[in-house]
Amino acid sequence: MAKKDTSGLMSSAGIMRYFEAEESAIKIDPLFVIAAAIIFGAMVWGLNLYFGRLW
């Protein structure tokens, strides 16, 4: 009696779920993330200098 190989169906279902999730993800440019981090850090540093002098 021959054995049935069902592993192909399960593995292809996982790949399809991965690609479906990838298409619906939000894509952000890495340069934007770096620029936002630098701007946020500069704002925190500047506010720390400004409010540090008041107290």
TrEMBL record:
Its main location: membrane. One of its GO terms (cellular component) is plasma membrane. The chain crosses the membrane at residues 31-51. Pfam families: Sec61_beta (PF03911). GO terms for biological process: protein transport. It is a single-pass membrane protein. Belongs to the SEC61-beta family. Component of the protein translocase complex. Heterotrimer consisting of alpha (SecY), beta (SecG) and gamma (SecE) subunits. Can form oligomers of the heterotrimer. This is Preprotein translocase subunit SecG. It comes from Methanocella conradii (strain DSM 24694 / JCM 17849 / CGMCC 1.5162 / HZ254). The gene is secG.
